[in-house]
Amino acid sequence: MTTSRNSPVGLTPVVQGDPAPTVKKPNPAPALSAGLLIAVLLVAANLRATLTGVGTLLPAIEQDTGLSASAGGVLSTLPLLVFAATSPFVGRASHRFGTTRLLVASLAVLSAGTVVRSLPSIACLFAGTVILSGAIAVGNVLLPTVIRTHVPGPKVHTVSALYVTVMGLVAALSSGISVPLADALPGTWHSALAWGVLVALAALAVWLPRLRGARAEGGAQSDGTHAPTPWRSWLAWQVSFFMGLQSLAFYTAVAWLPSILSKQGMSTTTAGWMLFYYQLVALITSMLLPLITRGRHDQRFVAAAGSLLVAGGFAILLLLPSLAVAACTLLGLGAGVCLVLALSFQSHRASGTSETTALAGMAQSIGYLVAAAGPLLLGILHDTTNSWTGALILLIALSLVMAAAGYGAGRDRHVHVSTVIRHHRRQ
């Protein structure tokens, strides 16, 4: 069920068992402090830092270990599968243990997983990827809820834009420096995979003091309620598919864009910096988009236009490979638009903090399950055909489907779910 933004029902969740809807008065968010902003942005920095460098290092990893393109696709797909498997359980875990405790635990696990992945063993490469991906999934789901709960309403849009910007900046930096680090450090690509632990430890150092006096927030709220996953809402499914298809395009580019460009004659180092350029354009776009769309609740045409830019970028790679800069520019513009919208939909299409956690859990579970097919399927297509043509045609088609999903998710509507009272609360 979906309700319009101005509908009283859309703003008033129903508590099961009550004879009539009751108004749920949200707790006013405290003033935004510099400490909270830094803590949020450090978590955001960790959501991509350990992932995006793998694509630029993949040729070296395959050459050193003998991994096939299909196995490389599995390595690139593992984080998305873990995201999909972990996301539905984050809301319940947050309700039981508290958002702060769960975030601190996830940062500690992320640090350990990053170290394990860098060890000189194929088993550690895959096991460490699974461990750190599970930790990132927690941050993916909880960060929109933390912002919705603790940031004053007028500043939510600004903080959301800042966290997307930091996430994109660190992702671009990781892509750009991974190959130079592998060339400069004694452990080659093993050492280059480990640099993200510095970002994780910095975030852990900032969040550890916040454990003092932390209480279980029940999905980031303390009123003892928990919103179920909105499986029956078509709007929630559109938000989820838009999240999935933009993630598929992003992670496919991160995993295979350097390989595609190398196949077309570009050097590995230059291809890595082209991936950096793609993410830099996406970063700048994500910074500017909130200024352009400020105050606009209906974002149908913006979401559709961003998706069409992505389709255009893949089409140029297919038809005019010599125009790689133009292709990466269009891909970056579309990725920046779609990423900001995909993340903001998870908050703006929900009617409260508990509902935000529920919608984010669904969107990221279904979304990353869709996205997981990208790197793996494209790797198999490349191995089968020894060409990127079929993969690029498929990406163009999926980008058009993303335009349709974004048009639906961009409607000015709320996903409506009933909240369930939870009597157990850990202090």
Automatic annotation (TrEMBL):
Stretches assigned to the Major facilitator superfamily (MFS) profile domain: 32-414
Membrane topology label: Multi-pass membrane protein
Compartments (UniProt record): Cell membrane
Main location as per UniProt: membrane
Keywords, sorted A to Z: Membrane, Transmembrane, Transmembrane helix
Membrane-spanning ranges: 29-47, 67-90, 102-119, 125-147, 159-182, 188-208, 234-258, 270-289, 301-318, 324-345, 357-381, 387-409
Gene3D superfamilies: MFS general substrate transporter like domains (1.20.1250.20)
Ranges where the record places region Disordered: 1-26
A Pfam short name: MFS_1
CDD domains the UniProt entry points to: MFS_NIMT_CynX_like
Protein name, entry field: MFS transporter
Source organism (scientific name): Streptomyces hebeiensis
Lineage of source species: Bacteria, Bacillati, Actinomycetota, Actinomycetes, Kitasatosporales
